[in-house]
Q: What sequence folds into this?
């Protein structure tokens, strides 16, 4: 359905995308994941007609195409649901679905628009009480349902969902993931951008990882774990966190080696050196005192200077 080869996009000196390759087949959900600044939004905007690529080719439905504007994207059969949904809170569900695509040449065909609205919502098994209530009164999951249903009006072949479960609760997230499965069951190709690995594992058939504007692997969901995906997203052993940890470990090892040297572990007898007998090596019989001078006259070596003291000091020590 979609095949991109060598797609690159620069903004001045900044390379947002470099030689990107991506394939999406009909009836398949491909999750597009990556860290902030990996180039996911830029890739989506190229397909949506917001930014043209600088280099590379885009093949859609067997034909090489050039997407200059959002109108070109819609005409090809590519529908994009952005994260902000772009809904009008003051309008009801029918008015939001047909905004800019109203039926009737002279006057609005309200009946037909309502019938088609219910038909679209039933295709998605949506749980919306009425199509005549304001969108502002709907939950996050129901608002996402309306946005996806609106994208189906033009009978698209590829639907791009930008963070469809962001800021949703558990029940609403499950509702949106059910919608994604409905799209796949209807034979549509789906690209889902998400930071939530649990959501990716729940509905994706394949996962394409972007890192720093380049491809960093494409995986079949059944053959990869969440840890493997996170490693591909972050670069595993090549990121600032692991580099800092390596530097800290090296510094700790060097410090431990310095404190365990021979000077730090040697005992007093090994560091002070041997003393030969009561005198010094030159035979003068004088021993250095604590301050570096000789012992007082009349105090023999081995004497403590106290009356009655005759204890012999350990060899190699000076009191």
A:
């Amino acid at each position: 359905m979609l095949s991109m080869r060598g797609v690159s996009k620069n903004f001045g000196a900044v390379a947002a995308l470099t030689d990107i390759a991506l394939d999406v087949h009909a009836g398949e959900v491909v999750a597009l994941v990556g860290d902030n600044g990996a180039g996911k939004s830029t890739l989506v905007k190229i397909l949506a007609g917001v930014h043209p690529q600088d280099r590379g080719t885009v093949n859609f439905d067997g034909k090489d195409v050039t997407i200059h504007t959002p109108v070109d994207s819609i005409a090809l059969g590519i529908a994009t649901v952005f994260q902000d949904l772009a809904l009008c809170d003051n309008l009801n569900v029918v008015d939001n679905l047909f905004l800019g695509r109203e039926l009737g040449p002279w006057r609005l065909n309200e009946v037909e628009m309502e019938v088609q609205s219910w038909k679209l919502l039933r295709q998605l098994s949506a749980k919306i009480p009425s199509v005549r209530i304001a969108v502002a009164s709907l939950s996050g999951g129901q608002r996402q349902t309306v946005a996806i249903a609106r994208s189906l009006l033009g009978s698209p072949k590829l639907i791009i969902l930008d963070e469809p479960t962001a800021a949703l609760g558990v029940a609403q997230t499950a509702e949106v993931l059910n919608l994604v499965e409905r799209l796949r069951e209807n034979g549509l190709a789906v690209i889902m951008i998400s930071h939530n690995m649990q959501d990716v594992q729940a509905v994706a058939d394949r996962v394409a990882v972007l890192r720093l504007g380049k491809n960093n692997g494409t995986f079949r969901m059944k053959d990869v774990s969440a840890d493997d995906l996170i490693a591909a997203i972050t670069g595993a052993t090549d990121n600032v966190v692991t580099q800092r940890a390596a530097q800290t470990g090296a510094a700790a090892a060097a410090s431990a080696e310095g404190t365990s040297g021979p000077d730090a572990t040697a005992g007093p007898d090994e560091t002070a050196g041997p003393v030969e007998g009561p005198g010094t090596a030159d035979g003068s019989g004088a021993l250095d005192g604590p301050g570096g001078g000789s012992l007082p006259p009349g105090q023999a070596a081995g004497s403590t200077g106290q009356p009655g003291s005759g204890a012999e000091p350990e060899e190699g020590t000076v009191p």
The longest helix spans residues 240-259. Residues 264-295, 300-319 have pLDDT under 50 and may be disordered. The longest strand covers residues 14-24. Strands lie at 2-11, 14-24, 29-34, 55-60, 63-65, 78-81, 158-162, 189-193, 206-211, 214-220.
